What we know:
Elements: E1 2-9, E2 19-28, H1 32-45, H2 58-63, H3 75-87, E3 96-103
Antiparallel strand pairs: 1-2, 2-3
Amino acid sequence: MHILYIDDSGSSENPEDKYFVLGGIAVFERGIHHQITAVDKCIGSFGLGDPAEIELHGSPMYSGRSGVWHTVREKSRREQMIKDALSVIQPPSSARLFSVAVNKAA
């Protein structure tokens, strides 16, 4: 069995958004503990507080405008944090990433 998480970006109802994106991750159930441990270790290395309280969302991380991310002034450091977080999901991880981008005009 796999554990599945899906999240969206954009709004299907907002006429200003040209695209609606769904992304997800599937992790084999016995691998979830190792994946969570790896992500928590990565977040802990950022030195921003309790990893359990920090959410990894691309837009706030990249812009540095909200949450703990506004305390990281250097854009290059935030970009490196994004790269570090994404690098946690690689072989031999059981995680599988997937996404779909929908052009709402189509």
